[in-house]
Amino acid sequence: MDPFATLGMPREYALDSEELERKYRDLQRALHPDRHVNATPAERRIALSKAVEVNEAYRVLRDDVRRADGLLRLLGYTGKGDIADPELLMEVMELREALSEAKQGKDLPQVQKLASKVQSLATTTRRELAATFGELPADAAPIALAKPAELLSRLKYYKRFLDEVNVIEDEALTWTKAG
Amino acid sequence: MALLQISDPGARPTPIGIDLGTTNSLVAYVPLVGGPATVRDCDNEALVPSVVTYKDDGSVIVGRAAKALAIEHPRDTISSIKRMMGRGADDPETHRLAPYRFATREGAVVKIAVAGDRVVTPVEVSAEILRELYQLAEDALGPVGGAVITVPAYFDDAQRQATRDAGRLAGLEVLRLLNEPTAAALAYGLDSKQKGTFAVYDLGGGTFDVTILQLDDGVFQVRSTGGDSQLGGDDMDRALAEQLLAQLKDEAIQSDPGTVRAIMDGARAIKHALTDRDAVDLELELPKGGALHARVTRAEFDALVRPLCERTGLACRRALRDAGMSPTDLDGVILVGGSTRVPCVRAYVEELFGKVPLDSIDPDQVVAMGAAIQADQLAGNSQNEQVLLLDVLPLSLGIEAMGGVVEKILPRNTPIPAGAAQVFTTYADNQTGFELHVVQGERETAEACRSLARFTLRGIPPMPAGLARLEVRFEVDADGLLHVSAHEQTTGIKQMIEVKPSYGLSDDEVERMLLDAYDHAETDVTVRSLREQRVDAERIAVATRNALDQDAALIDEAERLDIEAKLAGVIDAARGDNHHLIASRIEELDHVSRNFAGRRMDRSIKQALAGQRLSDVERDTAHAEGTDRHTSPRKDE
Fold it and tell me: Is B593 on the interface with A (CB under 8 A)?
């Protein structure tokens, strides 16, 4: 499945998100089961499966990591798993250690400081990813995909880190009461 | 040509919206002129207490009359049954301050022994409430069409299934299960033509939901939802009742069912009175003699309720985060549910979101009104502009993988209808079966999530470990209900899964209850099937006719004649009494119209992608149809 084609969007990483939302809504207006309650069974079935397909494509395109992943596959990238750049691993390990220390010390300001640091790293990575994808020719050789794939791995690490921060922030709501 | 008897639209059965609440339920509809209205009983009351009393003579009483019997018949009067929907008999939450005779403390289904030697399940108790509302609507409106029943957005699959089963058991045609906050937003959105991003804060009798949604140009798109399906006004009553009970000291009295009931009622009365007073004195006569004197101040009550508010706050923060928003991104906060009348809850919401919440529609009635609007639209009656609700899956769905870890297949907040597949493989040589365990929830281990179903895929030919490829596909429909299928890719062995629900009733059990509900089961079921098939045939005939009229250009002569012939077959069968024949003729028509349906859908997609609105298209086709209708030859009956 090509999620870009399903939603009628250009195959780009840097998508116009308003355009995406508009296309998504227009398609669901045409396909959502609620619009076909009085249709024939065949039409209901087809509309439902298309509505599911549009939702699947939308889920891929509106999330930057899934979108980059999908784009790489469509461009012919076949690599598996994340690219473990030793420098990145070291950086992430240090950040995680700092986070775990802050959590143990119930130091919320420190958690938030780390979060905003990673947040800005993620923003930079997104920008680089957009630039790299933007410069790729349509018939890019597989070797040219290594760079965006590496950036994507980086972004995934940052996002996982930020997910962990969210969990800690939820827990932190109970810290104040305990302490 | 005479199609089937197509009744006059003015006399069409009225579709209804039902808010099946923990404490109170109500039913609403959309009249021919004007906005949605609630159905009122002979005392002009819209709220029907969700209370059911089973009497010795086998009769069943629902609503205010049942509530009045609660203290006298505490064990045979069931209230707050919604909290037990789709839960197991061993769930500790089921037993808290519930004075009933539980028939079992184990197993998948709660069973309560009541007067008249009966054992009832939560689905049956809920069906009694639904039946009462159905009757109320029929008395007021005449024949009732389908129903939209609301559920808390945070209800899991087992709880949704149980609600749908209760609807079926009550004899309702359930058009849709609709999430309560989405229903409320619909009522508000249509009322005020609002545009923007809203949070719906819905604290009911037993459930809490928060939903972040965007309203734009008739589309209500849910961005995220969160909540707690075991948190509501009941918990405020219980917290206060537990405190009051502790004052009694005598353990025998503390556990007396009548006393517990009386004190729960007392606690609720105090809560209501504290809405506009700073302190309340309670004098409560106890059923076992003696009395309870208590004075509760607003400040004391607020302190009891505060931890409950904070639990809602956690869910609100998560929902905002999942939507990628902060409180400042919101254009408004909508209050829903009777428990939002409690002053400290309002104050908390205002503090949390930094906004004065909207409450212009009665928080007890707004959900039923939204459900009525949706029912009206789904029945195709609506004079209003068509709106579209795009909802999400509230809790992640996954499969238990090796080591008890959950492999998420559909994450929470996925837009529905949704589908996704995941491939699993064998871990042992010559393994011929797969044991699959479907779970729902956010935790990492299957044990900590809610178990939905277990099933086994058998008949895989022996091969080395890791070679078999088992694709498990999840489909969640627009009701938020899950369907699972699986097939082994190397051999093509496919199974629609025979799901053994971990909680709740199996389809067979519901079918049996339906049969039991009729006196002359066999004939009644045949009559019912025939009626349903005829209604189906009528709908399909009209839909096929419309499609042929609208899209003559998409079909060649041979194909059209083929469809016309099968259509005539359906109409013919529907005049007879053989429901099997009707079903098979419908199937034949379906078979020959597939390609045509596919072309119609492809055309809609192209138009949608080109930014053409359905309303524009309809106007265009209606125009084209005008010339077409008279020239196209029609097979006469």
Answer: yes
